[in-house]
Design goal:
By secondary structure, the chain is an alpha+beta fold. The chain contains 3 helices and 6 strands. The protein has one domain: Glutaredoxin. The chain has a 6-stranded mixed beta sheet, with helices on one face.
Length: about 110
């Protein structure tokens, strides 16, 4: 994903809102394939963290709370958006007052695409 704007969607099967958004996020990722952005899905379940990127799957054993703390994410779903230099530019999270929506991710991502 280095060299492109990268979006990492952080979700879990136990997070209903995460699962509800997943089809929209996957579609957004397909739309970005030709525009200089790539999408990765980071699923946190139980004690495993699974990264899915371009058909490859990686698992790291770590408590979910540790993974969320390391990512500095307090609630799911979340999106981490990195610029083409690999620097985190946006950390978008859901909250009860302000749920994450695909348009939030699209707006932030498109602001970084040249």
């Amino acid at each position: 994903m280095r060299g492109d704007v990268a979006v990492v969607y952080v979700w879990a099967e136990w997070s209903r809102r995460s699962v509800e958004l997943l089809p929209s996020i996957v579609e957004l990722g397909r739309e970005y394939e030709a525009s200089g952005a790539s999408m990765a899905l980071l699923r946190l379940d139980g004690l495993e963290e699974t990264v899915i990127d371009a058909g490859a799957q990686y698992s790291l054993t770590e408590p979910v709370e540790g993974a969320l703390a390391r990512l500095k994410v307090s609630d799911l779903p979340a999106a981490l958006i990195y610029d083409s230099d690999g620097e985190l530019r946006y950390r978008l999270e859901s909250s009860p007052e302000n749920p994450l929506i695909p348009a939030d991710i699209a707006d932030a991502t498109e602001s970084l695409i040249p």
